[in-house]
Design brief:
- Helix content is 56%, strand content 0%.
- The chain folds into 2 domains: 84 residues, Cytochrome Bc1 Complex, Chain D, domain 2 (Orthogonal Bundle), CATH 1.10.760; 86 residues, Cytochrome c-like domain (Cytochrome Bc1 Complex, Chain D, domain 2, Orthogonal Bundle).
- The protein is globular.
- With 218 residues, it is mainly α.
- It is built from 9 helices and no strands.
- The longest helix is centred in the first third of the chain and has 36 residues.
- The structure holds heme C (2 copies).
- One heme C binds next to α6, α7 and α8.
- One heme C binds next to α1 and α2.
Length: 218
């Protein structure tokens, strides 16, 4: 009886720990991703390596599984996503960890007693995508009509739909061209033709609009 009771108490205490450990595990796994995507998942080489920090967990997990199954081709990442390298649990852990990283769009304010390392780390996390050229009124109009429903009013995504705001413009454009060439599938059912119907200038205008709303003030 006493033993069962102790076991129950132990399990209750261990439960919140277990989920924290998954994030810890995710952080460990991220060490192998950081070489390309950066320590905070901020990406690099002007978007050759996309930002993954602060992306939606469900989208990160979907993409890792697609790379693993090779339904989406990604040669640089091939060795990292093979079955024996990345189990489903690893995918969940690293996705949850990356999704939890916040990369602010404003320079931090420091307290006088913040040390140099605290300041440096906070500054490294700031991520502002430069304004992309384009007609933001036209871009905003089309975004609200055609993209908004899935990618969110603020471009932050929802559910499994990825956030677009805060991603490198060059990376988004590269993904749009893969969708257009049929190398990657955008959204299986309803939206098959949506990008095909838009003019190249309209797409550029949408990307310009996304860089405008990244600070939350359209
Ligand atoms: C050798 C470099 C490299 C490493 C290491 C690497 N990646 Fe990538 N990753 C890439 C490149 C390049 C792309 C973009 C592919 C493209 O252009 O379609 C990418 C794309 C992604 C995407 C898709 C983003 C999106 O929204 O389309 C995710 C998610 C991702 N990586 C997660 C990870 C995780 C998690 C790890 C560690 C387990 C990792 N990557 C390790 C190079 C790398
Ligand atoms: C019906 C829902 C839906 C609508 C509407 C939609 N998208 Fe998407 N979009 C998705 C999904 C789902 C993905 C992830 C695809 C995957 O799993 O590879 C995505 C991915 C993307 C990506 C790649 C992001 C990344 O990080 O890899 C871009 C760029 C994009 N969409 C642009 C647009 C634009 C621009 C519009 C409006 C013209 C639009 N989408 C409308 C569902 C939608």
């Amino acid at each position: 009886m006493m033993k069962t009771l102790l076991l129950c108490v132990f399990l209750m205490l261990a439960m919140p720990l277990a989920s924290a450990q998954n994030l810890e595990k995710g952080k460990d796994i991220n060490a192998t991703c950081a070489g390309c995507h950066g320590e905070f998942g901020q990406g690099g080489k002007k978007g050759e390596y996309p930002r993954i920090g602060g992306q939606r967990a469900a989208h990160i997990a979907d993409q890792l599984k697609a790379f693993r199954a090779r339904t989406r081709l990604n040669l640089p990442m091939f060795p990292y996503t093979q079955e024996r390298e990345m189990s489903d649990q690893d995918v969940e852990d690293v996705s949850a960890y990356l999704a939890s990283i916040e990369l602010p769009t404003e320079w931090p304010e420091f307290k006088p007693d913040d040390d140099a390392l605290t300041r440096l780390t906070a500054m490294e996390k700031v991520m502002i995508i430069p304004r992309a050229p384009g007609d933001i009124d036209n871009g905003g109009k089309i975004y609200k009509k055609e993209c908004f429903a899935c990618h969110g009013k603020d471009g932050m995504g929802r559910g499994k739909f990825p956030r677009l705001v805060g991603q490198y413009t060059s990376y988004l454009m590269k993904q749009i061209s893969s969708f257009l060439k049929g190398e990657r599938s955008h959204d299986e059912v309803e939206m098959r033709g949506i990008l095909n119907e838009l003019k190249a200038q309209d797409l550029q205008d949408i990307l310009a609009y996304l860089t405008l709303i990244q600070t939350g003030q359209p």
